[in-house]
Amino acid sequence: xxxxxxxxxxxxxxxxxxxxxxxxxxxxxxxxxxxxxxxxxxxxxxxxxxxxxxxxxxxxxxxxxxxxxxxxxxxxxxxxxxxxxxxxxxxxxxxxxxxxxxxxxxxxxxxxxxxxxxxxxxxxxxxxxxxxxxxxxxxxxxxxxxxxxxxxxxxxxxxxxxxxxxxxxxxxxxxxxxxxxxxxxxxxxxxxxxxxxxxxxxxxxxxxxxxxxxxxxxxxxxxxxxxxxxxxxxxxxxxxxxxxxxxxxxxxxxxxxxxxxxxxxxxxxxxxxxxxxxxxxxxxxxxxxxxxxxxxxxxxxxxxxxxxxxxxxxxxxxxxxxxxxxxxxxxxxxxxxxxxxxxxxxxxxxxxxxxxxxxxxxxxxxxxxxxxxxxxxxxxxxxxxxxxxxxxxxxxxxxxxxxxxxxxxxxxxxxxxxxxxxxxxxxxxxxxxxxxxxxxxxxxxxxxxxxxxxxxxxxxxxxxxxx
Amino acid sequence: xxxxxxxxxxxxxxxxxxxxxxxxxxxxxxxxxxxxxxxxxxxxxxxxxxxxxxxxxxxxxxxxxxxxxxxxxxxxxxxxxxxxxxxxxxxxxxxxxxxxxxxxxxxxxxxxxxxxxxxxxxxxxxxxxxxxxxxxxxxxxxxxxxxxxxxxxxxxxxxxxxxxxxxxxxxxxxxxxxxxxxxxxxxxxxxxxxxxxxxxxxxxxxxxxxxxxxxxxxxxxxxxxxxxxxxxxxxxxxxxxxxxxxxxxxxxxxxxxxxxxxxxxxxxxxxxxxxxxxxxxxxxxxxxxxxxxxxxxxxxxxxxxxxxxxxxxxxxxxxxxxxxxxxxxxxxxxxxxxxxxxxxxxxxxxxxxxxxxxxxxxxxxxxxxxxxxxxxxxxxxxxxxxxxxxxxxxxxxxxxxxxxxxxxxxxxxxxxxxxxxxxxxxxxxxx
Lengths: 467, 431
Fold this sequence. Notes:
The structure holds two protein chains of two kinds. Chain A is α+β, with helices and mostly antiparallel strands.
């Protein structure tokens, strides 16, 4: 999601959560220390612990999002330091900051979960999984051609695999559209081709195994290139589940948050869990919550609502909504904007306040039946595209964050008040006092002081008779 | 090693006063065979020593004085403990080398492998820590809390390129380049983010295949026998050379099993040096018993506790003095009740620590000094004492002047006029 997200199942209470946020903030140079009780919630249904877990007591889960933060080079560097080979060998040599941040979308994540050390599961180890997601827009930066290569994207190529890695692979999606072959060409030829059904779609991947000795035989470096043989119309298929969120309304008093969820599956309906976290200064009116699908009202089968406490806790709204096939569901809720105390405004309050994105979790049924992939055989692939059973796959979707303006006071008023009051007092009170207490007495006319003589000199220049 | 004196020491041990800080010295006749020939003093690993009488009372007195200086604190060791507060002209060259007294220490063992393609290094650190390091830390647990962790870092190079020496066909790191070695590595150690206590780093460096073998030179140019060096208040580094394989066509990476005994010997010796438990030059008639697995003798622990107690009390006084100065500077600071009670407790604990030190009860003095340090730190670093939270007086002046000055000026002028007229009317006017 936009910003920073921190999800943790821990046995401690809020003190451990605060310590964890502060330590992670120090390690990753990110402002996670701003996470406190005003943006932490305890969702009950949206998250399940990854890996081994002894039951799922939802009181142990904490979830917090900071939508205002941005990801920058200083967050990438400690992320790279966690890799065993660092950025000196293997795939991580490609990750140089000046090219990575020259992209349309950048996201990095660290997941830690307990797993069995071997098949008998007598000992538990911790697994650390680091992911980096970057979207390069080569179409707009590559003079209108959709061809790309590793060198063009990262300005360097792969030279070897990390000697500590047991698996090091590059997957290139070469799925043919509409069953046409020979549409694209990948150089150098891949070590193998892998077919899988990913997210309900049949896809073909060209696999480059960096550990196989044949890959670096001909040349010292690997530069994967993809060229399109024929110009293509860029029609991307719409995903089965997608969502949008926006704020409507006028003025600075009230407003309405609307979420639109689209189910484009032709014949299957499925449920989706919606988790919304709204800060306390947008006071939600839950009685105005309406869910409308295809013109009729849609009642959710599970609602968990935790109202906000001013300056202590945000709103938490979790709902399980059934989405009929081929439909659009609109969820609206009205809110009122609160007036904050003077010191609670951020340094640029007219930018607005962010509302973190809502989280949609669903088991989407796939159009094509999927084969269950063995975890032992291809652990890398299943961690990228997990599937719980053959017929549906798990999707977690984040909507856009919202930017909401709160009624903002004029921060220059204290200065204005001081100036005005002092001026009024000086002019008004001073003149009245003088008028009331001035006494007049006769004075001898003097020859003239310095001021009178200066005035006379000026009058002589002007040609006006002297005083 | 003389068996008689060892057995005598062990046999006499139950008879002694076992409290911290006490020393027992037994004087044996000159002709006794408990001490071997040529040895006049035998220092045991608990708190006792055997002294051979001979040469009269004056010689015995000097011997006993020397022994006390070895086994217990001296003026120089106390001033080394206070080194941060004493002007540097009065200190010896070894002051400011020992670790500052703290409530806990975190020890990190790191294996640096800059060339994982050539060397696949394995070390059984967990076993080595349990077997060799844990007994020493258990003995030191009276002084502070210790926590141990370990890590393996790859592609971590030293900051200095070693020179190739043709005569010994090896690479050498000269003594004056050693200070530059630590800095680039420190960035990758990453230990200070998550710990409250000072960190001691012990690094084991396996040089790259192209830079093997690597030796450290001391100031005279001779290679150091243990191939290791330590940096005061930071930790130590040891270089572990891997023998080149006999045949040049061996498959890389070479598998290396680190000999943990050799490594832990060096690291534990460096740990002793870091804490200031080194054995200075002793006269040849002294014989010290080796402390065995525990790493340090009881009287060495006592020396450490004396130094730490004095340092803690000095820290408390510095902290409370700074707090008093802060309160003097800002007149309208609000002291909360719990901060005040921490200050009172710090003062009371410091006073009781001084009293116990004067009476010689080392254990109680140390505990009191620890409590005093904790209370004073808690009082001083309380967030409510941030001086930026309080308006300086001159800013208040600046806010009220534009309001009151325009009002005050006519009043003052008219007051002056009234006074002048009243004085004029002092010469009475007869109408």
